[in-house]
């Protein structure tokens, strides 16, 4: 199957937020995320309350928020959240028909560049639900190291030094 190229964009438009509401209303998608149970309702309230075409400033509070775009459309989102001398990464590919096409892989690689080069972090952490085999395989496949298994999730780390080896 052909891999789909992507780009990360920090611009968040109303249409992107509306797509996120649809994705976060999908039981299969939300079951794989560690999102607050009120996230969909909060997003709907924000869209209804703010009458602006660009909502970027509302998504970049305390983190770097990106939409994942392929040539035609927004297909997911990614956050880089500064935490405990590192950055936590959260990713969701919302267009299920595109799962398994390399979008997550390419988005995480782009996010690692931003985390290590732009944010100058020493470590990126991914906390993935145990049942989310796709994401677990994604992070292991990129070279993240499994460091902790908790009751409901597995924690993976990528250090700056490990990333340099992968990138070179």
UniProtKB/TrEMBL annotation:
Specify the domain of life of the species encoding this protein: Bacteria
| Pfam name, any one | Acetyltransf_3
| Residue stretches making up the N-acetyltransferase domain | 28-163
Output the Gene3D superfamilies linked to this UniProt entry.
3.40.630.30
Which InterPro entries has this protein been placed in? Acyl_CoA_acyltransferase, GNAT_dom
Identify this protein by name: GNAT family N-acetyltransferase
């Amino acid at each position: 199957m052909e891999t789909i190229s992507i780009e990360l964009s920090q611009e968040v438009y109303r249409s992107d937020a509306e797509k996120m509401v649809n994705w976060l209303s999908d039981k299969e998608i939300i079951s794989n995320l560690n999102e607050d149970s009120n996230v969909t309702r909060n997003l709907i309230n924000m869209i209804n309350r703010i009458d602006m075409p660009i909502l970027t400033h509302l998504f970049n509070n305390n983190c770097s928020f990106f939409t994942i775009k392929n040539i035609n459309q927004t297909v997911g989102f990614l956050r880089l959240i500064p935490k405990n001398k590192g950055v936590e990464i959260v990713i969701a590919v919302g267009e299920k028909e595109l799962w398994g096409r390399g979008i997550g892989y390419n988005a995480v690689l782009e996010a690692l560049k931003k985390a290590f080069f732009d944010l100058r972090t020493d470590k990126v952490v991914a906390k993935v639900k145990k049942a989310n085999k796709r994401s677990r395989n994604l992070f292991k496949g990129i070279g993240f190291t499994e460091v902790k298994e908790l009751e409901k999730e597995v924690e993976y780390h990528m250090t700056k030094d490990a990333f340099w080896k992968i990138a070179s």
